[in-house]
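[[Local backbone shapes]]
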Amino acid sequence: YKLRKRDVQKDGLKEEEAVKLRNCIRQGTELFQAGRNGGLMVKPLNFFYALTSYAYASIILNNPLRYSLET
């Protein structure tokens, strides 16, 4: 993995991954704001889904397959 990562060009994110990342961050922010302003019964659910969205964005950024060689 480390050798493959070193050999791959540092072009950054692909457009498809950048769109997924942007959507995850945007969705997480919207859900977090809804949780802050929502009622007591739905706050935990909104915060859970916001955290899940942020976690998915983190997975996209740290995915080792992002550095795989194009065949």
User: Anything to note?
Assistant: The longest helix spans residues 15-37.
